[in-house]
Known about the structure:
The protein has one domain (about 10-435): Growth Hormone, Chain: A (Up-down Bundle). The protein has 17 helices and no strands.
Amino acid sequence: MNEATPDLRLASWRCGGILFVMFLSSVLSQTDRQLVNILLEPIKHELHATDAQMGLLSGLYFVIFYVLAGIPIARLADRGSRRAIAASCMTVWSFATGLSGFTQSYAQLAVARAVVATGEGGCTPAIYSLITSIFPVSARTRALSFFTSGTAVGSGLGIFLGGTLVGALGWRHVFMVVALPGFVLAPILLWVLPEPRRAEAAGAPPPPGVFATMRDLLRTRTFPLVGLAAIVGSIGAFGAFAWTPAFLGRVHHMSHAEIGLKLGIATSLGLVLGNLSAGYLADRLGSRDSRWALWIPALGFVFTLPTGLLSVFSPSANLSVILSAGFSYFIAFWPPPIIASVIRIADQRAKTVAGACIALCTSIGAALGPFVMGAMNDAMNQAYGPLAVRYSIAASVCVCATGAILCLFAGHALPGDLERRALAERAAKLAAASA
């Protein structure tokens, strides 16, 4: 089976440099996003918010704008300059992150976080598309895994910076400090990232619209399954990451600084190693049998259940943090292979929109996880007190583990969808050549 190959041919050292800059953008994006979670308690008390409201802040409110902005911007990126869009979006979210420190009410902070979501929602799909244009299929999942490992570093960095700086600076100034690197990296993105030649330049028809791309993906057997897997995986991941700092503080009585240091390191190491392991295994085994591209995430989902449950029910704070690193490792198995698989089965003229579609599924889970867990905390507070957060995290981990079954079936469906996409691409090229 032949697949579309990248339009751009670059020296390996330059590809490495470009990928590193993309990685840094992922680090900053997730740092800004994760910051709210470690600052949750001081923000909640100063702004007089409930756990459910704080869950909405890092979940539903964020995701609504991430999606509403992300898909239309992805459509623009499939027609225009992806590097310019990525750089512009980074500037927007960095400005809004700094602005978060000036807010005086919960509503104002919600608006600022919505603008952060708008910037991040437009940047990530554009970079997904650039990666698939630069790297061949044989190395694509590894490249995507390196990029997504930036979210792992950013998650840990956000926890670390928030936990260590909040005592000295206060939560408002932490937002302002974390916003600064984005203003430096945005022009570097514009300067360093290439803009590969488009299919339209060779006389092909323009890319399909957003709804046409979504309809095309939903007609495959693979996308509905991996889309649902992304939703349940995000419920577990974002729910646990949002409330684990509060769990360690409420149940194990760890300080903000201790949580920031220990959990920041554990989360970063677990997610980075998980992303890179998944990328390597999916490319290595997937080159022999394409089904392994989605069976690797299935294996990761299986092991999230014991590591996640043991983490929250551990009697020791330090053991809980160590097991949390194990959960982070296995939960990181699904994003790179699933993203790469979705882009492979999509129309290659609409890669950015395809990336935005799987980001939409991730965002649904990211919205539900923190909010539902926050609502569960409020509902169980009278009966269980500080222990309520333990049971809400355990529930989200159980939901997350169902992704194993979905990815197992999706793996069986993937070869047929790849073959159908290859036939469609060859037919489109023949039609363009004869026109």
